[in-house]
Specification:
By secondary structure, the chain is α/β, with parallel strands linked by helices. The protein is built from 7 helices and 8 strands; from the N terminus they run βαββαβαβαβαβαβα. The strands form 2 sheets. Strands 5-4-6-7-8 form a 5-stranded parallel β-sheet, sandwiched between helices. Strands 1-3-2 form a 3-stranded antiparallel β-sheet, with helices on one face. The structure holds cobalamin.
């Protein structure tokens, strides 16, 4: 099977058949008309040969659909560019050795899920002793003082902790993105840190299921981490970037 990287299409049964599966809810009662409306909607989206393969009444005023269709479009993967974080990911032992050798002191890392967001699992996965999926969290790292403030922490409270603990790095988690609330929350934190005159003194990192590095930098953060991140990914970045900045200051 030879794949043409300059024009790839979704793969279903055979190469280049363009087969996709869409699932969505319509805010109408379930009926034959609702099913046909779902099919026509997918056709209007530009998919060929739409077929409703599953549909269900999911309560008064709502119906749910899974529709198969064929995409007409293709994409040239050779021209796709992603702004990735350049970091050499080390394991826990290597990171601990790096801190001991290159800093000779403990690093203070403060983390929180900010403002209205009550999701703790993401920040806990990175910071708590137990970690995530067999990867220990920052609390377990020799050389890192990890302060996990939990969720629904106001930006003001986080800023005060950053100052009190003389944080080297700040780890912010944002999970809810409804009505772009994460953008408002993340921007608010940057503005407060700037007003306090401490933005340039800390490494500011954000993570969450809908965060990537490009988006994080656009919002004024130093780096962004998405789904599947482990403590060693972010710890590797922290120690290497903090060291790079330290060297920069010495050279000036
Ligand atoms: C558990 C859960 C809850 C629990 C949270 C319990 C808790 N203590 O955290 C409860 C029931 C409280 C809850 C509430 C709500 N939830 Co909720 N919840 C979930 C659920 C099922 C799992 C989230 C989770 O724990 N994932 C596991 C962790 C490990 O993954 P993660 O967060 O992505 O973290 C990883 C990375 O993103 C990254 N990461 C995350 N943070 C950070 C930070 C840093 C610094 C770094 C480096 C990396 C990093 O590393 C982590 C490990 O790899 C998701 C759906 C889903 N399946 O994802 C919905 C979901 C997140 N919830 C959702 C919603 C809408 C809500 C509510 C608004 C519902 C409501 N109407 O009340 C409320 C919000 C409450 C609030 N004020 O925030 C939506 C969000 C939609 C959106 N795009 O905004 C989701 C996606 C469900 C859905 N499909 O609608 N929720």
């Amino acid at each position: 099977m030879e794949v043409n990287l300059t024009g790839i299409k979704p793969y279903g049964d055979t190469l280049d058949d363009g087969a996709v599966q869409l699932s969505f809810t319509l805010p109408i009662d379930y009926s034959d008309e609702a099913v046909e409306a779902a099919r026509l909607l997918v056709q209007k989206m530009g998919f060929d040969n739409p077929k409703v393969v599953f549909s269900r009444d999911i309560g008064r005023g709502f119906s749910y659909f899974i529709v198969y269709g064929k995409a007409k479009e293709s994409i040239d993967v050779t021209k796709v560019k992603v702004q990735k974080l350049k970091v050499n990911v080390m394991d826990k032992g290597e990171i601990e050795a790096f801190i001991k050798k290159d800093f000779g002191r403990n690093l203070n890392v403060v983390g929180a899920c900010i403002e209205s967001d009550a999701h703790t699992v993401g920040i806990d996965a990175i910071m708590n002793m137990k970690g995530y999926n067999g990867h220990k969290g920052l609390e377990s790292y020799k050389g890192i003082n990890a302060y996990n403030l939990g969720s629904q922490v106001s930006c003001e409270e986080l800023a005060a902790k950053i100052i009190e603990l003389k944080a080297d790095a700040v780890l912010v988690s944002q999970v809810v993105t409804q009505k772009d609330i994460h953008i408002a929350n993340l921007t608010k934190l940057v503005e407060i840190l700037e007003a306090e005159g401490i933005r340039d003194r800390v490494l500011l990192v954000v993570g969450g299921p809908r965060i990537d590095n490009k988006f994080a930098q656009e919002l004024g953060y130093d780096a962004g981490f998405g789904p599947g991140t482990y403590a060693e990914d972010v710890a590797s970045y922290l120690v290497q970037e903090l060291k790079r900045r330290e060297r920069e200051v010495i050279q000036e």
